[in-house]
Amino acid sequence: MECIFCGKENTAKSIEHIVSESLGNTVYLMERSRVCDECNRRFGKFEREALSSTIFLMERARMGIPNKKGNAAQGQLGGFGIQGNKDLVKNLVTLTGLKEEDIVDWKPESQTFTLKLPTFEKNEVAVSKTLLKIGLEALFTSKKQVYKKYDFKELRQFLDNTNQAEWPLVVSAPAHGKFESIPINYHKFELAKTRCHLLYQEADQQTLLFRFSYGGIAMTINLLGRDLNWLEHYQAPAGHETIYPAHFRAKLTRLLAQRD
Question: Is residue 94 part of a domain?
Answer without folding.
Answer: yes
